[in-house]
Amino acid sequence: MKIIDLTHTLTDDIPVYPGDRPPRLTPLATIEEHGFRQLGIETGSHTGTHVDAPAHLLPGGITLDMYPLEAFIGPALVLDCRLNEEQMRLALRIQSARRAQFVLFRTGHGALWGRPEYSSSWPTPPESILRLLISRGVKGVGVDTLSVDPAGDAELPNHRLLMNAGLLIFENLARLDLLPMGIFTFVGTPLRLPRADGAPVRALGIAKELWDD
Predict the structure, then answer these.
(1) Which superfamily is assigned to 2-11+45-210 in CATH?
(2) What gap in Å lies between CA 134 and CA 164, rounded to an integer?
(3) What gap in Å lies between CA 50 and CA 57, rounded to an integer?
(4) Cα dihedral across residues 17, 100, 61, 200: positive or negative
(5) For the packed helices 85-93 and 127-136, what is the interaxial angle rounded to 10 degrees?
(6) Nearest Cα to 101, choosing from 145, 133, 139, 72?
(7) For residue 171, with 0-12 CB atoms within 10 Å meaning exposed, 13-18 middle and 19 or more buried, which class applies?
(8) Which of 77, 82, 185, 87 lies closest to 136 in space, CA to CA?
(9) Cβ distance 134 to 107 under 8 Å?
(10) Cβ neighbours of residue 46 under 8 Å, at least 6 residues apart?
(11) Residue-wise pLDDT tens for the chain (213 aa)?
(12) Which end of the chain is more exposed for a tag (fewer CB within 10 A), N or C?
């Protein structure tokens, strides 16, 4: 069985959205001094590999705890965002692609993770493709970048478009290039928090076609 970890490790120096406060990981206890080890974690709800709920931007928007657990799990497809729009549309017309409940956009920008360029600018999915996915009733979309919107766009039009349709948005996904072509199972379950506008996730890709007999 092949399980691919799509999650970046949460560290003190993890890339964050410009203006956001980085996380703090602080030792609270050590084996030498206390007889046990404990780590203190302080982080924003949209740091690292995470999921956005509509409550992040929309007044009265639903929070993560209002989604059933199955909303974070389902068949998924990787779509190469480096293709032009017509090529992306053709890829989504394949019969198997119509089964996808999640579409993860591979932009190639994830290769810059940990470098200053990762946090300065990044590519985004075309609006027309997002509208197509909304019309299909997918559960969510994901990107290998800091945001589904362009850097510096305060209006966040793609966020609002997707959130108004009730879709989940997964950002800072890792290792999308290791996922197979075709359908696989995506798991992006968030921390169980009350009334959360977003939360870190442990995102996984389970490639059924690569399972061992």
Answers:
(1) Putative cyclase (3.50.30.50)
(2) 10
(3) 15
(4) negative
(5) 20
(6) 139
(7) buried
(8) 77
(9) no
(10) 17, 20, 52, 56, 171, 197, 198
(11) 799 999 999 999 999 999 999 999 999 999 999 999 999 999 999 999 999 999 999 999 999 999 999 999 999 999 999 999 999 999 999 988 999 999 999 999 999 999 999 998 999 999 999 999 999 999 999 999 999 999 989 999 999 999 999 999 999 999 999 998 889 999 999 999 999 999 999 999 998 754 333
(12) C
For residue 166, the one-letter residue type is: G
The three-point CA angle 117-176-183 to 5° equals 155
- Of all helices (H) and strands (E), which one includes residue 160? helix 157-164
CA distances from 181 to 58, 104, 170, 173 (A): 34, 12, 20, 17
Between CA 103 and CA 108 the distance in angstroms is 15
- State if pTM tops 0.70: yes
Structure tokens at 191: 């921390």
**Helical H segments across 2-147, by residue range:** 31-34, 85-93, 127-136
Q: Cβ(198)–Cβ(178) under 8 Å?
A: no
The amino acid occupying position 114 is G
